[in-house]
């Protein structure tokens, strides 16, 4: 009797990277997946004048920061060992703490800290060059699809 070994576990980091790189919106914002694995994701995007919300100050629009944090939260969920590779945002609460410095790259860091049967929870922060003072902080809930 021959034993068959179970199929190899999916490479969640690879799946998350491919998913994010395939999203046209992420491409339009020039998002870059900088780090991913075990429920942690780091995604950044460059400053772009097309994303400025206030022409007088040159500050990036909050919607671009929101999109970055949402994508980063989803990536963190996708890379969590207890979650499957598909997710969707249920709820995302963002507190904007200060304007990002015009010209600076913005980086989001998200951590998936709890997964239930059907929901995953994240915390995230976004920074410019000054990592001691977040631009925004977020908490969110994302779907978890079970087989």
Structure overview:
- With 147 residues, this protein is of the alpha+beta class.
- It is 22% helix and 35% strand.
- The chain contains 3 helices and 8 strands.
- It has helices at 12-22, 24-28, 62-78, and strands at residues 32-37, 40-45, 52-54, 59-60, 89-96, 106-115, 119-127, 136-143.
- It has a 6-stranded antiparallel β-sheet with strand order 1-2-6-7-8-5, covered by helices on one side. A two-stranded antiparallel sheet has the order 3-4.
- β7 and β8 form a beta hairpin.
- The longest helix is centred in the middle third of the chain and has 17 residues, at 62-78.
- The radius of gyration is 17 Å and the shape is globular.
- The two termini are 29 Å apart.
- The mean pLDDT is 90.
